[in-house]
Design goal:
This protein folds into two domains: 149 residues, HAD superfamily/HAD-like (Rossmann fold); 65 residues. It is 42% helix and 13% strand. The strands form two sheets. It has a six-stranded parallel sheet with strand order 5-4-1-6-7-8, covered by helices on one side. β4, α5 and β5 form a beta-alpha-beta unit. α1 crosses α3, α3 runs parallel beside α5 and α6 crosses α7. The longest helix has 19 residues. The termini are close together.
């Protein structure tokens, strides 16, 4: 039976209509005087620091701790500002799925497995009144390598639960191939959803355990083995 369910954020729990990417663009423009810095940069499924490092490298900016801190301090401001001006929302089926998890006889722990930095994830999820649901997490500022974050979330949850936690007792819910890859790094089960930027046909070759258009198409009791 699944004891831990880890959710990706963007495209899985919420859609921000590009507020995060726009916040990146505004930050590079306002702090580093860079125009079009994120053009051609892939965001889906990646950690925020790895994206910043790529742009720093492309634009010959020193990837120093000072420059990362400078970037993310301003990024948080822009993200908060831009969220209030977008028409984003919670992805279809999310509340039904979470309510289903909570209604199980032995509800699993809910957590986050995301490439967002912690503050970015908190700003986004508080805006949509979801932040308070999650008891454990691994964020992009914990490790730039997304696959390493899965192991970190697994360890943090095991410590909270006071038990060892195998990959088969963990379910990852995500919307990109990198979410699936990340889950497989700890042999976790995967629900892949088509609510992000990837179609079901694009996700299918990565062989998630369940592939659905949205979370209303899958029952919590089914994927958690209850």
């Amino acid at each position: 039976m699944v004891k831990l369910v880890l959710f990706d954020v963007d495209g899985t729990l919420i859609r921000t209509q590009g507020a995060g990417i726009k916040a990146f663009e505004r930050t590079f423009a306002s702090e580093f005087k860079l125009s079009g810095a994120t053009d051609g940069v892939e965001f889906a499924g990646r950690t925020d620091p790895s994206i910043v490092r790529e742009v720093f490298s492309k634009c010959k900016i020193e990837p120093s701790p000072e420059n990362f801190n400078r970037f993310f301090g301003t990024y948080a401001f822009w993200l908060d500002h831009l969220l209030s001006k977008t028409n984003g929302g919670i992805c279809m089926g999310v509340w039904n799925f979470i309510n289903g998890l909570m209604a199980m006889p032995s509800p699993p722990m809910l957590g986050l497995l995301t490439g967002n930095i912690r503050l970015g994830a908190e700003i986004k999820l508080r805006y949509f009144h979801l932040w308070q649901l999650f008891q454990v997490a691994a964020f992009g500022d914990d490790d730039e390598n997304r696959d390493h974050l899965a192991g970190l979330a697994q360890k943090r949850a095991a410590d909270k639960l006071g038990v060892s936690l195998s990959g088969s007792e963990i379910l990852v819910v995500g919307d990109t191939p990198l979410d699936i890859q990340c889950a497989r790094a700890i042999q976790a089960k995967v629900v892949a959803v088509g609510t992000g930027g990837y179609t079901l046909d694009e996700l299918k070759p990565f062989k998630p355990d369940w592939l659905v258009a949205n979370l209303s198409e899958v029952a919590a009791s089914v994927v958690c083995g209850a």
